[in-house]
Amino acid sequence: MATDQIQSLWANAQASLEGFQKTQSETSRIEALAKVTKLQRALEQPKDAILKLSYQPMVFMALKVAHDMQVFPVLAKATSPVSAKELAAVKPADPLLVERIMRLLVSFDIVEEPEPSTYLPTAISKEMVNRPAIGTVESLFCEFLPIMQKTPEYLEATNYQNPEDPLRAPLQYTHNVEQDGFAWLCEHPDALTRFNNFMEGQRANRVHWGDWFPIQERILAGADSNPERALLVDIGGGRGHDLMLFQKRFPDAPGKLVLEDLPSVIDEAAPELNACGIEGVKYDFFNAPNPVKGARVYYFKFVFHDWSDEKARVLLNYVIAAMEAGYSKLVIEEYILPDKNAQFLHGTTDMAVMMFCSGLERTRQQWTSLLESVGLQPTFWTREGEGLGVIESVLPGSNGTNGTNGGPR
Ligand SMILES: C[S@@+](CC[C@H](N)C(=O)[O-])C[C@H]1O[C@@H](n2cnc3c(N)ncnc32)[C@H](O)[C@@H]1O
Fold first, then answer.
1. What fold, for 56-127?
2. What is the pTM (predicted TM-score) of this model?
3. Where does the O-methyltransferase C-terminal domain start and stop, copy by copy (predicted)?
4. Which of 354, 346, 332 is nearest to 387 (CA)?
5. How confident is the model at residue 405 (pLDDT cuts 50, 70, 90)?
6. Structure confidence by residue, pLDDT tens digits, 4-51
7. Is 188 a catalytic residue?
């Protein structure tokens, strides 16, 4: 790339970094990162960029091996540089192998090497001792990577049609099974645990909707004070991490918190749910109307992106059947993709759900079409940053909330 183009990208990156320093906002951080990445790409020779991209799975493999060799807990505790020999002693592993794995991690700033063959942790390696980070690496490595490798072959075999059927996604093609991805997970307990840790990891450091959505005004004001009535039903809520965060933020909210998910997920979550006083309900959302009637909120986070419009409509109609007109709300928290220039995370999540269950991420227009097709009128609430939004809907004819009140963007 010509020097003057690089100069211009540098000026852009600098301006966005200054913007971030000034505002410290999530939007400006993401914008600065995008500008700096553009500059970095411009400095790379295209052929080197392609080589680096193609070799990227090696870094992921090295990260997984380092985790398996228990390198990260040792590094995280270190107050001075740790030698390859000391790291190898845990397993024990061959110090030369440890050195070779660490070499690659150093080149990706996952660890530091202040002296030859001695290591210090970076922020990334320190993160690698937490359950959600480990779940992210393990689930993507063990479950998603083999499917990813088969996806091009699957797409060729299906004449490059957009996958719509959850029983015929790349996962089913790879493993030669005829059940949806979640039923398959439930039959593989280790994979299910890794997946649920991954899901927790996806949420752990992200802003909770309770931190930016006007829950007091839109949900709690007007909620029935009857303690036996459900306030919030988290459908497909995994281990209930979102409900637990809600409970922490709104400890005095009236009514029950209910988690609905597949039986093996509820069984796995039961001890923590009981400890928090959250009700766990085993429920297959494709099989029957929602058993909890007239809740204030039916909440779905990252559930609809797993399903095509056709499947999503089945699910929506079962929720609608349980909603009370004028009282219940449907709240969906997911990415609302921009019409252009979607972020890396949008694209990667879109591919992951496609491979796993023929799912898809949706733009605002796609969300609108889906919700309107079952008679709901969505109100969109977006916040700065990574493009996660809340889509709030009420039954047609209910008073008040559809696009009329202040706040939504
Ligand atoms: C992508 S995860 C999202 C989990 C959680 N809401 C979150 O955002 O972390 C989808 C969830 O839907 C659940 N699920 C999938 N199929 C289901 C079904 N037929 N009935 C009920 N839950 C289901 C899965 O077990 C999983 O917990």
1. Arc Repressor Mutant, subunit A (1.10.10)
2. 0.89
3. 230-376
4. 346
5. very low
6. 889 999 999 999 999 999 998 878 888 899 899 999 999 999 999 999
7. no
